[in-house]
Amino acid sequence: KAGKLQALGEGEAESLMHLEIDRQHPSALPAIKQAIEGVLADVRAIVADWRPMQDKMRDVAEGVVAGKGPGSAADRAEVQEFLRWAADEHFTFLGYRGYAVARQGKEDMLVAEAGTGLGLLRDHDASEPRPVKSLGAQRMPATATPQALILTKTNARATVHRPGYMDYIGVRGFDKQGKPVAEQRFLGLYTSSAYRRRPWDIPLVRERHEYVMRMSGLKPTSHSGKALRHILETLPRDELFQAGEEELFRTCMGILGLQERVRSKLFLRRDRYGRFYSALV
């Protein structure tokens, strides 16, 4: 009970961690203790809900093709394949919650569905309803077709695994009129294996790869065609996941052009959901 190690190699496997903290003023110790306990609580919630979150993404994937929504059946099938790919050890699940659009007064609000929170988004920490018009996705041009799949970054860093901004995979549900009425939201981090995969092996990304190669007008076996393919293969994976086809085309062709005249260049991309800018030098 005192935490003294009594035996090894018995019972359940455990990972032992030894932490050393630099000398602190006594007044800082309660905050440090609270932070460590908070991270440990996050780890327990994530580990306990890992399998349910993985199963949930697979269930959502099955409903994409059968459900209503924008795009062709082929587009929805590609979204389904991406979700299956992510659930197949390519995404570290940290949180999940379901949301529904509900009318409150004169505004449409995105409301968390009680009892759906898993991992970091367990319902005891459910967020307040937010006006749909205030969401980043609503900043897209009025002419843009609503997307069934949302791929972006959150504005919060992960407390476990690695301290980067969490990846956000959202799957929207639509009514018969094509209006978004629900969202299944997954938070996490793409795994190292996801970042090592070639663009033409990743659902959705492979379509963007094909678009860039086709629009370039270059023969894949030509010198410039091979150079463009290499640019796509070595581009940061976050760009491949989050950039649209036309954005990706402009960036890759711009990089290809630098081979003719070597110079420094800055490529800026505004996140379509209004969360951040990507700067590639």
Architecture overview:
The protein has 281 residues and is α+β, with helices and mostly antiparallel strands. 36% of the residues lie in helices and 22% in strands. The chain is built from 7 helices and 9 strands; from the N terminus they run ααβββββββαααααββ. The chain has helices spanning 29-66, 73-87, 192-196, 205-216, 223-234, 237-242, 245-257, and strands spanning 91-104, 107-112, 118-119, 130-131, 149-157, 165-174, 180-190, 267-270, 277-280. Strands 1, 2, 3, 4, 5, 6 and 7 form a 7-stranded antiparallel beta sheet that branches. It has a two-stranded antiparallel ribbon with strand order 8-9. The longest helix is centred in the first third of the chain and has 38 residues, at 29-66.
Q: Topology of this protein?
A:
Elements: H1 29-66, H2 73-87, E1 91-104, E2 107-112, E3 118-119, E4 130-131, E5 149-157, E6 165-174, E7 180-190, H3 192-196, H4 205-216, H5 223-234, H6 237-242, H7 245-257, E8 267-270, E9 277-280
Antiparallel strand pairs: 1-2, 1-3, 1-7, 2-4, 5-6, 6-7, 8-9
Helix pairs in contact: 1-2, 4-7, 5-7
